[in-house]
Specification:
Helix 2 packs across helix 3. Helix 1 links the parallel strand 1 and strand 2. This protein is an alpha/beta fold. The strands form two sheets. Strands 1, 2, 6, 7, 8, 9, 10 and 11 form an eight-stranded mixed β-sheet that branches. A three-stranded mixed β-sheet has the order 4-3-5, with no helix packed on it. The chain has a single domain, classed as Bira Bifunctional Protein, Domain 2 (BirA Bifunctional Protein, domain 2, 2-Layer Sandwich), CATH 3.30.930. The protein is built from three helices and eleven strands.
Length: 225
């Protein structure tokens, strides 16, 4: 049975507006990290508010803090960036929407586990707009789509870093990427034959990036206020 998303209480303790920005073009990963770190510092010191930043990257792999060298199957295929987020190897590239969330958990209960559950609920609620049932799986990071034959495919990744209770990194949803690009790594949570990767396009859903962005924004409000 599918699991309905649970919405933890992540409402801000004081009034505030979450800013939304969309990066133009294909953004270099190192530039994105530098921008996030600067914004996190500004949020921490009261110089800026929370931000959700919508990005697309050129093809690349990122290595989280739990990445295993053997899970990088093709070392020469795309650039590999080590990052301080949790998790293992993840692919980013064209056709994938990355949503970087810089959220002040000092205003939202200082509960990292609840925040991660909130990110999961955000993705599940977004996918439901397109008629896709996304599900959590114990022991596997991200959001999954189950098929009648028992196969399960990952459609969204989640990776978080926190500095002084301000978050960055976030989620990625496969809209219409080249799924063969995932073959150079063992993506986070995928280590068995019946597990794979999918996308909205792979599921036969012709959603544009603008469609996904609109759904992300509506669903975010349901989860985070």
């Amino acid at each position: 049975m599918s699991e309905a998303p649970t919405f933890p209480d992540l409402t801000r303790a004081s009034p505030g507006i979450v800013e939304w920005q969309t990066a133009s073009g294909s953004l270099a990963y190192q530039e994105a990290v530098a921008t996030m770190e600067a914004r996190v510092s500004d949020i921490r010191h009261g110089a800026a508010g929370e931000l959700v930043w919508l990005v697309e990257h050129p093809p690349l792999y990122t290595a989280g803090t739990s990445a295993k060298p053997d899970d990088l199957l093709d070392v020469d295929r795309f650039p590999v960036h080590e990052t301080g987020r949790g998790g293992q190897y993840t692919y980013h590239g064209p056709g994938q929407r990355v949503a970087y969330a810089m959220i002040d958990l000092r205003q939202r209960g200082q509960d990292l586990r609840a925040y991660v559950r909130g990110l999961e609920a955000w993705v599940i609620e977004t996918l439901s707009v397109f008629g896709v049932t996304g599900e959590r799986r114990d022991g596997r990071v991200g959001i999954w789509v189950a098929h009648p034959d028992g196969r399960e495919d990952k459609i969204a990744a989640i990776g978080v870093r926190v500095r002084h209770w301000v978050t960055y990194h976030g989620i990625s949803i496969n809209v219409s990427p080249d799924l063969d690009h995932f073959s150079g790594i063992v993506p986070c949570g995928i280590g068995e034959e019946h597990l794979g990767v999918t996308s909205l396009a792979d599921l036969g859903i012709a959603a544009s990036m603008a469609d996904v962005d609109a759904a992300l924004k509506t669903s975010f409000t349901k989860v985070f206020g």
